[in-house]
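Take a record.
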Amino acid sequence: MPPTTRTRRGALLVAAAAASVLLTSACSGAAAPSGGDAAAAPGKDDKLTITVYSKFTDREYGVVTAGLNKLKAKFPNIEIKHEGNQDDDKLTQSIRGGNPPDVAISFYTDNLGAWCSTGSFQDLKPYIERDKIDLNQIPEAVRNYTEYQGKRCAMPMLADVYGFYYNKDMFAAKGVTSPPKTTDELLEDAKKLTEYNADGSIKVAGFLPSMPFYANQAQYWAPNFGAPFLGPDGKSDLATNPGWKAMFEFQQKLIDALGGHDKVEKFKAGLGDEYSADNGFQKGKLAMIYDGEFRTAFIKDQAPTLNYATAPAPVLTTMADKYGSAFTTGTIIAIPKGAKNPGAAWELIKQVTLDTDTLVDMANGLKNVPSTKASLTSPRLDLQPQFKTFLDMYDSGKLVSNQTTPIGDAHLKAVNDFAEKWQAGSIPDLTAGLQKVDAQINDELKQKGAGG
């Protein structure tokens, strides 16, 4: 089973960063999106072809194609030409070359700031106002990651939510009766659940704090520590926000509890690839992990006998009232600058982002969260207990998304690079180290005219 949508995010980090640079340079001289008039919808019997670029392949490609083709119920003579395996780099080149698709689907929301600010994705406000679309049917955090500085140049198609997975058999064997809700509980449970070989090396880790590794990414942990990347002034806010210091100090406590960095790294080196059947959690080498809802599909396919459950991720002990909050991101869909059939493209976007049955079919097929509130309550939605946890978090009102910037994922990479150095003990002063990261990110923001 191939990875679902954002499960590819880790593998796409380098490629996406390169694409962000390319699209910024390619579109820096691009004209602003076409004026305030929405293109007319096609007639019911009009014959035309809508070209769609996406990164979907294999089984997932079929699921999404079926969703796109639901538009034919309204427009039977419209053909959907869905070209899969098209990444952001290829999309950028098509826009720059004046031959873009009518509809663009991207897994990588961190490029949205550049897409919007350069006009590479058209402003959807005229369409939304004309058709009286109520955006409140989409959670606020999801609305946030599909717009930039008030400009809505994309819509959410499906969402990911990150939470906590735990091995029920391991919990029972060690007398742990419930998943940890706070970082103090996580620390104690990690100690209880960790097992060692005769030579002192780690046999099973209660929780592996290495970062970046699997879904241990700064952006996924941050909401549970109250740690935003940017302050109200639009500048990097790592050194002055207590959440970041608390997060990294907690990470160090976990590493120390497992026996230190070298022992943790040796154990980590023996774990399988995140999206293979040898994933450490699926193989019983990790008792607890952070991950997205899509992991349920991997487990069903690759480790069907695993006895596990899911829960919201633990939060900083001093913010226990925030338990149930979660990081969210997702697939975005847009009309590129220069699209030949923008009116028809908008009709297709409405179909796959707002139609409940279409969303539910794709969510069931891809094991991602459907992005509207109505689709969450559909009786046709697959409600396996482990998956339902993520639906509940999505509907909790406590979602947090990445703050959109014009520098793509450069700020995320900077923090994850810092985390790797910090956990290795090569950062002697946490505050001073975070100040350097702030300066690096702020310099990049300044170059793009952001952050004041």
